[in-house]
Amino acid sequence: MKKRFLILILFFASAGWARADYAGMKKELDTYQSPDFFPSFEGPGPVKEGVKQRPKTDEIDAVFRLKQALASELEKFRFFIPADPALLKEIRLLAGDQEKCTALIEKQVDPEEILILAISRNPGLRAAKKEVKAKLAAYDQVASMDDILKTYDSFIKGSANRAGPDPAMKNSIRLSWPSPGLTALKGRAVDADAAIALENLAIMEKNIITLTRKIYWDLALVDESARITRDTIKALERLREVATSLYRSGRTSFQDVIKINIRLALLEQDLATYRLQRRNIEARLLENLNLPAESRVGAVGQLPLLPKIPLPETLYPVAGKERQEIKLIRHRITKLQAMVEMAESMTDDSFSLGFSFNDHDWTGTSSGFLKKTLASGKNNQPKRPWNGIAQPWLEQTRQALAGLEQNLIQEKKASERMIREAWFEADKNLRELTLFESKILALSQSALDVSSREYETGSIPFSQAISSYTDWLGIRLAIAEKRTGLGKSVAELEKRIGKPIIRKIR
To answer: What is the distance in angstroms between the CA of the first residue and the CA of the last residue of the chain?
Structure first.
């Protein structure tokens, strides 16, 4: 009797405890709110009280930090550094207004202004920036898919009738230890790929800047040549007056006047050619600045003088460090190195026996650290099932990596050769420009003055006088060409170096 009474008391007590537990479970179910498992890459928003925040994975955090870093990198100038920050701010504010940009270049073509406009408005450079952002969008998709798969896996394991990993746990420790872990390798590959996109953007910017500078020098040459031609026409018109006066006095023939008229007609035709040639150069500039083709372009600003060109031996180390094409290959090597390490981590045996691994939930299972290691996994599955399958791809990647290392050596040697060639052109133009300006121009001007006076007095024939005018014109045009050649060769030299190391002195 006592035993039955005791059993009844235990039964009712357990029933009451079960009812109380059921009520608590029901209340918890009614107030349950599912966590936000789906990632958002717009940045961390405000944290609401009482709402659980989804723990971000390492991949998502890495991509978000990378996006923040690249957002500032996209706004930087990698090749061209404006000398006046105030001018940079002013031009970039009006760069989006087409009418204001058109009015700006109609007044005068300033080299600093058109370079800032080219960086701000060129469609090719904008397309390169979009490609960088597209790269990041691809990483967003991959990170989002990984997070969704992990969430799905946690739901499946949570419904299984066994103790499994906690859904809030990080990745398996087997994949993140010993260093370097797969998460770090994936982050390094992402960084390298983004750096590749940025270097491609820098190459595009460098090409656009160099092209714009060469267009500027072409405009300067046409304007200077037209000015020299007009001065020569005025000088020949004065000579025609002298020839006409001598013909009327009977001291020369009418052929002198005819020859001067022929020369003047040819020079007038040269002026028309310069005008049409300028329109072609203007079209190149307007295309580069993304402005309407019917826009007009003003005269170029004051032609700058250039300092002495550094020796090529001093430029080789700078190019090895700064040239974008070399850095691009280095980033590709870094990316392939990370991919090879990831493949080896998935296919090769670990450096450790795994006794310090524990992938289970500490509160849901009684198993602690492993005490032995087996030759196979669960259900007699091989520990590295992808070993044989991944080896051909891994060998292919290793060969591609070795090829890139050889390409890096080749690119460095090619850079030295291209720098030597560009330096030769710049140095040649500088030496010849100095010679023409310091000696030959003054001698030509003296010969012109002497021949003009002697022709007026009848001491020399007309052929010698017109020859002096022709030489004077040719030397002045040669100086303009040498100055333009120097500016364009310096622009090409800086492009091959990868850094604007030669600055204008005034």
So the answer is: 116
